[in-house]
Amino acid sequence: MALFLTHHTPWPAPQTAYEAEALAFCRSWLAGQNTFTLHTSGSTGTPKPITLTRAQMQASARLTGQTLGLVPGDTALVCLNIRYVAGIMMLVRGLELDLPMTIIEPEANPFTHLTADTNSFAFTALVPLQLQTILSAGNESQAGHLNAMKAILVGGAATSPALEQAVQGITAPVYATYGMTETVSHIALRRLNGSTRSEWFTALNGVNLGVDERGCLHITSAATNGEQIQTNDVVDLPDPMHFRLLGRADRVINSGGVKIQPEQVEQLIQRVLAQNQASGLPRLFVAGLPDEKLGQRVVVVCEQVSLSDAQWTALQAIIRKEAGPYAVPREWLTVPQFAETPTGKVDQRAILAGIR
Q1: What's the gap between Cα 19 and its chain centre?
Q2: DSSP E strands: which ranges in 155-283?
Q3: CA atoms 320, 325, 330, 332: torsion sign
Q4: What's the mean pLDDT in 324-347?
């Protein structure tokens, strides 16, 4: 099912509870409601309610439109969960920028609803799993929808090396986003494909960045209502407009007194696996589990896929060489299925609780 909304035609009756929820928000927005309460995703802590003002949301939507060159009449595909900021802000962008919207309830491949006869879209936002699923389908019609866009945003989770390689086949600009509920969606973009692809995020106009004593990013912008938002994201910030994510301060593993940033080990593992696997990569993450001797031992937690003894030994040798002996995982733990947050992110806390 899909719901089509424009400023210039009567809105259809909702066919599902999800469509009714989307229409209710849109009507509240057009009626001039001034505050909206959203919830954080819960991927890095307990979900909490956050109240955003209309002015904050308008500032964010307009800045995205300016940055991506969106103009009235550009069509938008809304396929992120509208119960969270990324999906809600797609609706706000459509309403504020006069973008006709096709609203689809979130699923792994939202393009299954689209055919070769479906009108092209100028803009969409996806989570990495959705984009990976679309690309893995190998459907020419779906690839055509991607290539016809002015911009494709990818956020909500880190993009893997394999996905970043796969998007090189997309001719439309693809951007990784950085943001959160507190910043009213993204405040920085990183080009993933084409000649201008980069490892560095670039802040949007009017966004001020800095770091605290831990090297963690803080953000101030019109979308934050001029307030400084402090994050737990450790970054490399060479100038006030550009940064590179190194990992989260609250994910650091202390193993034998040595601090290890697990995201860097994850990237290395994914790169090695991508070189040796023809099919899609499994979902995995690196974590620290309690250890009587080390305090924490480094482990890899992977969904469904196990390694042979030879593969595991070879992987450990590569990690030892490139990241040092303390970063070498002691175990490869396989679980049948990853728990997820309501926004589709891997719920590491719930998974680790099941292992312990």
Answers
A1: 23
A2: 174-180, 185-191, 201-203, 208-211, 216-220, 229-239, 242-248, 253-255, 258-260
A3: negative
A4: 90
Per-residue model confidence (pLDDT) at position 43: 55
Neighbours of 141 (CB within 10 A): 13
Segment 215-259, tens digit of pLDDT = 999 999 999 999 999 999 999 999 999 999 999 999 999 998 999
Q: What is the pLDDT of residue 45?
A: 57
First-to-final CA distance of the chain:
41
Q: What is the DSSP letter of 102?
A: E
Q: What mean pLDDT is predicted for residues 185-209?
A: 96
Contact between 297 and 356 (Cβ < 8 Å): no
How far is the CA of 55 from the CAs of 29, 91, 98, 99, 170, in angstroms? 12, 15, 17, 19, 35
Side-chain half-sphere of 164: how many Cα atoms within 13 Å?
17
Q: Supply the mean pLDDT for the chain.
A: 91
Domains annotated for the chain, with CATH where assigned, are 3-249 (3.40.50.12780), 252-355 (3.30.300.30)
Q: State mean pLDDT over 125-132.
A: 93
Torsion of CA 168, 169, 175, 180, to 10 degrees: -100
Cβ pair 172, 281 in contact under 8 A: no
Q: Are 220 and 227 in contact (CB under 8 A)?
A: yes
Are 156 and 127 in contact by the 8 Å Cβ rule? The answer is yes
pTM of the model: 0.85
Q: Return the structure tokens found at 217.
A: 């990013």
Q: Find the DSSP H helices in the chain.
A: 17-30, 54-68, 85-97, 128-137, 140-147, 161-166, 262-276, 309-323, 348-355
Residue with the two structure tokens 């939202």: 110
Strand partners, 219: 209, 229
Distance CA 204, CA 217 (A): 15
pLDDT band at 115 (very low <50, low <70, confident <90, very high): confident
Alpha carbon distance 12, 19 (integer Å)? 10
